[in-house]
Amino acid sequence: MGLKEGSKTTGNWTGLTKMDLYARLNLPGLPKPYSDLPADPKQDLKDSTKLVEVQIILICAYCVIILLGLVGNSLVIHVVIKFKTMRTVTNYFIASLAVADLLVNTLCLPFTLVYTLLGEWKLGPVLCHLVPYAQGLAVQVSIVTLTVIALDRHRCIVYHLESKISKRLSFLIIGVVWAGSALLASPLAIFREYFSIELNHDIKMVVCAEAWPREGKINYGTIYSILMLLIQYVLPLVIISYAYIRIWSKLKNHVSPGGGNDHYHQRRRKTTKMLVCVVVVFAVCWLPFHIFQLVSDIDSKVLHLQEYKLIYTLFHVIAMCSTFANPLLYGWMNNNYRTAFLTAFRCDSIHPVSEASPALKAKKKLEGKENHCNSPPSSQPTSV
């Protein structure tokens, strides 16, 4: 048995996970497992993702996530572009989040589902490098953007400052976030190999796997995983938690001198509550996946689990739920987004809207706000 890529033997595939190898367990005429699989030959390794019932559930789950993500995030981007009152600095950052989630919905999830069902990579070398890179990029963009939003609101609310960030500066920040995230995610594309495994003379399978260099006992893949856990998860959530705790304390102890300011204060509280929920959902969805990945890199015994592939896939599905959760939270917790969503749907309808319909009232409400977009904050609440 050997690892081949054309006529070239691939000698460095230390980053190859059991998820890539377990697909061969149900192939007919399979030889004995590789030495990196459990040494106990009596251990009955299995792959439940090959069961028809499990595959149907996975297909339904991924399709629902993709559909909700495409519709919800496209709608967020649409209303931010369409309505002037929605074109605030915070909403531009939220639109950037939506773009990152759309990237995952279109470029990652469909191919991940195909890979899981087929058990081997049949999508070519380009997508082999691009799909994991796109997911890493999107996750990095999302968490950094959430951090930027938290810090901006912390500065505005805790120190009683209106946002000094101009729209031009917000676009610059978004560009820097995407460029920096692209750089941090680049190892996921660089240290990747697309090759075929020759199981015996009759059976081969194509694999797309991580291939990190090693120097003695130093595994750069493990080092990168730990760094990404700190950069993509732990450190940002510590910063975000600190910012929102101070914000919430400030808003909770706020004493309003007048009715107008009190209304504006209530709007700020609702918006802050919504943004905190966005962060919590992101953190909860990605926590199991991050922990499982890290434990797999540190302790290879985890890879010997009989249902490693199924567990990995389930945690991946949970993580991907974060790609459609944000638009639902916006529509549920923010009146302006809810109004804009309703108006956008009605505007695209081919049926006329009556004068007394809720959609027309919603549209007039948005248009009325646009006519007063230059009003001071004390008399008109911000969109978000």
Automatic annotation (TrEMBL):
Cell compartment(s), UniProt: Cell membrane
GO molecular function annotations of the record: peptide YY receptor activity
Gene Ontology cellular-component annotations: non-motile cilium; plasma membrane
Gene3D superfamilies, alphabetized: Rhodopsin 7-helix transmembrane proteins
A Pfam match: 7tm_1
Chain spans, region Disordered: 363-384
SMART domains assigned: 7TM_GPCR_Srsx (SM01381)
Ranges of biased composition (kind: Polar residues): 373-384
Range of residues in the leader sequence: none
One Gene Ontology term from the biological process aspect of the record: adenylate cyclase-inhibiting G protein-coupled receptor signaling pathway
Xref: InterPro entries: GPCR_Rhodpsn (IPR000276), GPCR_Rhodpsn_7TM (IPR017452), NPY2_rcpt (IPR001358), NPY_rcpt (IPR000611)
PROSITE patterns according to UniProt: G_PROTEIN_RECEP_F1_1, G_PROTEIN_RECEP_F1_2
Main localization, broad class: membrane
Transmembrane segments: 56-81, 93-118, 130-151, 171-191, 223-245, 274-291, 311-332
Keywords: Cell membrane, Disulfide bond, G-protein coupled receptor, Glycoprotein, Lipoprotein, Membrane, Palmitate, Receptor, Transducer, Transmembrane, Transmembrane helix
Record-given protein name: Neuropeptide Y receptor type 2
Organism per entry: Salvator merianae (Argentine black and white tegu)
